Amino acid sequence: MAQISTPAQERSLWDRFIIGLRNIAPIYIVLILLLIGIGTQNPTFLEPAGFLNLLRRAAPLMVLTAGQLFVIVTGGFDLSGGSLMSLTVIGASLLINNDPANTWWAILVLFGIGILVGLLNGVIVSYLNVPSLIATLGMLLALRGAGLYWTGGAPRGYLTDNFRMFGRGWLEPFPVIERFPYAVLVLIVVSAAAIYLFNQTNLGRQLLAVGDNPRASRLAGISVEKLRIIAFVLSAITAVIAGILQGGFGGVNPDAGEGYELQAISAAVLGGAVLLGGRGSMGAAIAGALALEALFTLLNLLGLPKPLRDAVQGLIIIGAVAYAAYRSRRTR
Amino acid sequence: MFFKNVKRPWFLIFALVILVLGLVACGGGAATTTEEPAAEEPAAQEAAPTQEEPMAEEPAAEQPVAAGLESDAAQVKSEFFSQEQYDRSMRQMTMTPEGPADQPWIQMLDNPEMVDTSQYAKEGPYTFCFSNAGVNNPWRVVGWTTMQAEADLHPEIAELIHVDAEGSDEKQIADIADLVASGNCDVLIVSPNTTAALTPAIEQACEQLPVVVFDRGVFTDCPVSFVQPIGGYAFGEAGARYIIDNCSEDCNVLALRILPGVDVLEERWAAAKLAFEDAPGINVIGVEFGDGDNAKVKSIVTDYLDRFGRIDAVWMDAGATAVAALEAFEDAGQPYPIIVGEDQQDFLVKWQENNLSGIAPTFPTFQWRTPIIAALHIMNGEEVPAVWRLPQPVITNENLDQYVQPNMPPLHYAMCGCENMPDFPERWGGTQ
Amino acid sequence: MANAEEPILEVRSITKRFPGVVALDNVSAQFYPGKVHAVVGENGAGKSTLMKILVGAYIPDEGEILFQGQPIHFSHPREAQEAGISIIYQEFNLLPERTVAQNIFLGREPTRYGLIDQRQLRRRTRDVLKQVGAEDMISPDAEVKSLSIAEQQLVEIAKALSFDSKVLIMDEPTAALATHEVEILTRLIHKLIEQGMAVIFISHRFTEVFDIADTITVLKDGQYVATAPATEVTPSKIITMMVGRELDQYFPRLARPEEIGEVMVQVVNGSNNKLHDINLTLRAGEIVGVAGLQGSGRTELAQALFGVAPFTSGQLTLKGQDSHVKSPNAAIHARMGFVTEDRKAEGIFPNQPLNDNILVSVRALQLVLGRIKRNGTASKPHLVSELVKQVDVRTPSLTQEVQYLSGGNQQKVVLAKWLASTCDIFIFDEPTRGIDVDAKASIHEMIRELTQAGAAVLMISSELPEVIGMSDRIVVMWDGRISGELPAGASEEDIMILATGHREQEAEAAVETAV
Amino acid sequence: MSALTWSNMRSRVRESKIPPVYAILLIVFVSAIVLDAIFGRGQITSGVILTNMVVRSVALGIVAMGQTFVMLAASIDLSVAYLISVTAVMASYLMQGDPARVPLAVAAVFAIGGLVGLINGLIVSKLKVNPFIATLGVGLVLKGILNASFETFVGAVPRSFQTLGYGTLGPIPISILVLLAVTLISAFVLSRTRFGSHLYAVGGSEITSRLSGLRTDRVLILAHVVCSLTAVLTGLFVVSRLRSGAPWVGTDGLYDLESIAAVVVGGTALSGGKGGVIGTLAGVLIFGVLDTMFNQLGVDTFLKQVLRGAIIILAVASYTVRSKEKAA
Predict the structure, then answer these.
(1) Contact (CB, 8 A) for B4 and A332
(2) Interchain contact, A220 vs C417, CB within 8 Å
(3) pTM, whole model, 2 decimals?
(4) C34: left (phi over 0), alpha (psi -120 to 50) or beta
(5) Contact A221 C361 (CB under 8 A)
(6) Pairwise CB contact (< 8 Å): D316 & A134
(7) Cβ–Cβ of C361/A220 closer than 8 Å?
């Protein structure tokens, strides 16, 4: 190994391109293959409008996954995301109470609740030392009840159009394709923000450090507890956003987020995140979520029965992780 | 450091094992999923199995269903269809029920055989006990609220003890045992979570005290009275008939279902399928399961619109997601289809706003009032019908207006028969 | 039993290479039953490597091992154990949550009708505990976590005996023990050799070496120096043999008086549960070496200064003003840096790229949402590449994950981390442990450069030549106290006397005889 | 007052060998009695309700014992819920209400369970897949196969078989005896067999176990097999009570997450090597007591869920809060 003479940024574009190509996450290839598969089944999906529809459909999961990754890289889980989504939808219907004027502060309140839940998760994990699996499992059960207890069992009001706009509405007129879904806009913004936070700020690097070696992190001056809490808060915020999108797309529905938490974890793992922390890529995780959704769509188009879809999903997740484990052992 | 060597063979072996499992899955692949029928959405809750032929397992349960999307429906028919009950339902739909027309919850159909309950007669005040399968969806919430309101109407009911099984058979069995053991109950009202599973528990309860079962049945006739509307076939047939009568030649029908395996839902589809089969110009372009999830339903409909360009009518085995289906048409900029919904407010409102051509068969929530009334009869030693068959009104374009209540929550069920009860509408979440 | 003329275990011209280092170079030695054979040498002299080879944890590149005259090739410590060669590592292999009996017979539980025979298990445990003379000190049913370090070591020894070993190897057995515990161990070892066992042990404590050992073998830089009966050599002779090259090893020059500046760190009567009445001054421009055996409180001192386990009483003054360094973060704010002893567990982030490893502390001081530069800071965008050049890290790229770097390079990365956060107070704990010779030299060079740039350095090391060669002053610790301070160029003997707490030992001896 | 109880409980517990969770169980139980006396009918102590309190814990209890095994080995099993469904359906499908076919059916489901456990164990130990993901995936596969083959209640178990769920031996329900038997056997295996002792070792430190010559992979695999077998037993118990099995019985019972919660509440560390089935028994009973109390007090359904979640967290926190090593 010769001593390095030229730091990365001085290398020629071409070299960097090659290097980039070499360590591109496998999930992107998988995703492309899936999209091609979908295209062969039903080309409309690859036309702008069709593809935007796919994105719009996948948006809630992709957003939730982005948040989930923040927690996973610190070596934790957040199982409470799905029920927080449901809580958001139910809460919105109660707070807005059929009056469009209420929408905006209602959304603020919902984010407030989300942040509170995140803080709670974080504090329980960081200061009570409760393993995040248990802490967020308890939170999952609690939130399930809380939402319905709050509204007395069923959503109380309609979701007004200005609330549903985010999940359902379009930006029109729009150049080239005449209309552009707000959901995708939100998705782009959230993804960009998440990727920025994760790749461009101290936060992302420190979260990785905490997940990789908590003791060393502490000795390097990182306040581990604070970062764990931030991670859970971010996860909760994305859950609220996902809830708003889901509620907007589908309308009032007391269990809008059911099962989303596990799908988000699976997606992050498909994106190469390691469950005990220290490794993960935001872009790849979000791509993983899209891949999962694309997989469902493809299996749908192939007319495969839902049960088979579950099975395939299970196999793919195991396969992906097994392959990653196998590769990391080989490189050691 | 030791044992460090990678076990590549293992990796391959497992890839294989897993693949095999996958294939097995395909092999057995029916078109469908079965999630908790209880936990998820209204119609599953409304599931009302046929309570006649005690102790009979559903015939087709014997052999597992193995079929793809298309053959699936046929399979289902053989599995759940019972000609004799189909005829019974059709007959009852045409009957005029006995009893006050403005109080359908005390009407009876098919002049039922009455049971003498003098052995149970006793002085008030009474403690009624109610083992509830769950309040885990709006339909049940409305029903439960209505039942409480009904109980409040009767001063002689000192207390209505409510235990909730949260959609778990195991829990409900234990709950019933608790209630019986506590010895507080003068009468036990049960809304079973699933038919087969609760039968043993209810049989045990019957030995101790009078039992009233409603909503879903059990495979035993030990309960003093069983309260139930006409049932699934009528529901399914009404919707299908409306489509057939109103859809022009060459009519693309999309059948949206919640999930398979729940008897009442299967009955609804079986009846509809029967109707569609011998109807000219009707082609069912697909039968899909939406899990009662708005988002899923919307996606499915969108995909079908992409694929077939035009859908003329949508038949649903439960209306909970009707609005989502309609929105898919809006989002795709397509004209509204002929739609079969249910008495859910959000659908009725949309129906009225856009004066769609639609129909809403109902599985009325007013049936939650009847068990209390039946139980009171029993306490007073008055006769009650062994099978209290309630009417099953259908909302049509004609009578739509009298059911639309914009002041009620979107997931309120109009057929609650609660409009004249105290504290309406606040108690049901509505506003003046 | 085995006669003393025949070596029970013998190594012939063993050579073992690791990337960048020759750990053992053509070493030979014989070990006799009924004898205690001490192997001495500085850290990195190859002692541990030799031991690991004896038990099959490493496979030698050249040479052969003879056990009872037969060539042997162990591929797993378990095989060595069963053959009758047991080793006790410095860090014990015991399960804290399990009982003594369960630990000793783990994987070999006596069974009856397929079930663990509790009675027999206890009985056999008591037997082996009796052999180590601990039968009434340690209950077979005691959970290991409830035992003291010394007791745990006895359990380890008992475990070794339970294989009825013919050879027992102990790596720094006394490192963590207090004086009276050492006595017990010494007696035990004598008892064992009377039973005809061959005992090999590694130690820095010459008092014990000469108390216990019959034979002493000296290694230096992986080479065999000499073997002599304990009776025929003196400590000083041994020391010169093992560190024979004080002079031929290059150390940077010491600080000139004028280079030594104002007081950077001052501790007055600092104490916590591990440390007692620490009084310490650290000036800009000087390197203060801290010598002392393991468990003497060296590391605890570093941790106290850096806020990991702060002083609970006493006074800490940094650069003139009183400070309460209650957390590493506070320490770093005070521009302190701590190069830890356990690199893997506390220094590096194995899965993270080099640049992030170097920048982690800088970033810890910035806002959490602050934007990062990949290879530096806003003010110094090329910081990483500069530091990588400065400390001479050999890496294919700045984004290489550090888990793939050699130990020496990892250590340089850790150093670079603190350089990046512009510290002016450095604490080094074993800065050159497990690093090959030329890397050592360059690290020494860097440390000196730090002080020449006006930094103050506290350097903990168990390698006496390093302490002597580097330090402008030497502080020696014993039993959580500072047992003495020596000027630059103090002799190893002086240090050893303070470090082995000779005086205390004599005092205690006196007390014991008096009683 | 409860604080006082708490402290002297703790001292008492420390002396004895009883896991601390029993203190919590006692507190919950006492407060249940008190609350019931004040707001309820004070019946919670009546024999029938007490037995019922245990009976409603049996199904969860049995599988929680198995879950304890895997978690002692620092693994976890999320596939149990689906395996329970598989068992329930397969059992009643194979029995078809015919007593003669019971042995065949039982043998068959245990075989399936063993296979599933083996697969779980192999994926975790040989493929080094994180157990959370591995068993989650296997669960999905089971779900798929199951739903592809069965839609609703199939077959039935013969009345004779229902004695498992409903029968009593004198005053005591057989189901309780089953739970006790499983608990005692598990406790016995953990404390008296080499497998048990190795299980703790592997969970405590895999490296040390390897250095001591244990075949750690085998231990881990066996643990997963045991867990799956207990899941099968739960499945049989459930179907014997339900008379007929449907594909949703396992997931409806939330047996996967609740068993994990029960084990952790019972004092077994997620990190493995610490704890035991005796603690788990208490963990399970806590849930039973809570359910009964909530019913007796007529607590609102949704509030119930909130409380349950909170209590799980608090119970676990009561051990972890003082612990040094940070959880993630």
Answers:
(1) yes
(2) yes
(3) 0.86
(4) left
(5) yes
(6) yes
(7) yes
- CA A36 to each of CA A40, A58, A134, A303, D4: distance values in angstroms, whole numbers, following the listed order: 6, 17, 40, 17, 67
CB of C396 closer than 8 Å to CB of C414: no
Give the separation between CA B380 and CA B156, rounded to whole angstroms: 11
CA distances (Å), origin C388, targets B139, C21, C53, C394, D4: 68, 22, 35, 8, 60
pLDDT tens-digit readout, C153-191: 889 888 888 888 889 998 877 766 666 777 888 888 888
Query: How far is residue D42 from each of residues B181, C146, D55, D290, measured CA to CA in Å?
Result: 13, 45, 20, 15
Burial C97-125 (b: 16+ CB within 10 A, else e): bbbbbbbbbbbbbbeeeeebebeebbebb
Note whether C97 contacts D273, CB cutoff 8 Å: yes
Strands (E), chain A: 170-171, 180-181
Token digits for C187?
């007696």
* Dihedral sign of CA atoms D157, D159, D161, D162 in order: positive
Q: How far is A207 from chain D (nearest CA, A)?
A: 12
Taking the CA atoms of B338, B342, B344 and B349 in sequence, report the sign of the dihedral they define: positive
Q: Which chain D residues are Cβ-neighbours of A265 within 8 angstroms?
A: 132-133
Provide the token pair at B377.
Answer: 């009869």
Q: Sign of torsion, CA A286 A288 A289 A290?
A: positive
Of A132, A147, A314, the CB nearest to D144: A314
User: B125: cis peptide before it, omega within 30°?
Assistant: yes
CA distance A189 to A20: 24
CATH tag for C9-242 (out of 3.40.50.300, 3.40.190.10, 2.60.120.200, 3.40.50.1370): 3.40.50.300
Domain that holds residue B323: 232-361
pLDDT tens for chain D, 328 residues long, are 445 565 665 565 555 567 888 888 999 999 998 988 888 777 778 888 888 889 989 999 999 999 999 999 999 999 999 999 999 999 999 998 888 999 999 999 999 999 999 999 999 998 889 899 999 999 999 998 888 888 777 888 888 888 888 888 888 899 999 999 999 999 999 988 999 999 999 999 888 888 787 888 999 999 999 999 999 999 999 999 888 888 888 887 788 889 999 999 999 988 888 899 999 999 999 999 998 888 888 888 888 889 989 999 999 998 888 776 555 5
Asked if B168 and B139 touch (Cβ cutoff 8 Å), the reply is no
Which of D83, D151, D300, D305 to mutate: most A Cβ within 10 Å? D305
**CATH fold of D55-318, please?**
ABC transporter involved in vitamin B12 uptake, BtuC (1.10.3470)
- Residue A233's H or E segment, with its range, is helix A224-250
What's B97's DSSP letter?
Answer: P
Distances B297 to B130, B325, B328, B329, C73 between C-alpha atoms, Å: 34, 6, 9, 12, 68
ipTM attached to this prediction: 0.84
Which amino acid, one-letter code, is at A21? L
Please state, in angstroms and rounded to a whole number, the distance separating the CA atoms of residues B424 and B405: 12
Q: CATH 3.40.50.300 residue ranges in chain C?
A: 9-242, 259-335+423-515
CATH number of the domain to which B324 belongs: 3.40.50.2300
Alpha helix (H) ranges present in B209-335? 232-246, 263-277, 294-308, 322-331
C339 Cβ neighbours under 8 A, 6+ residues apart: C347, C411, C414, C415, C418, C426, C427, C428, C429, C431
CA A145 to chain D, closest CA, distance in angstroms equals 4
Contact D192 C115 (CB under 8 A): yes
Is C142 exposed, middle or buried, given 0-12, 13-18 or 19+ CB atoms closer than 10 A?
A: middle
Task: Report which residue type is found at D8.
Answer: N
Overall fold of domain C259-335+423-515: Rossmann fold (3.40.50)
Distant-in-sequence, close-in-space partners of B209: CB < 8 Å, separation ≥ 6:
B180, B185, B186, B187, B188
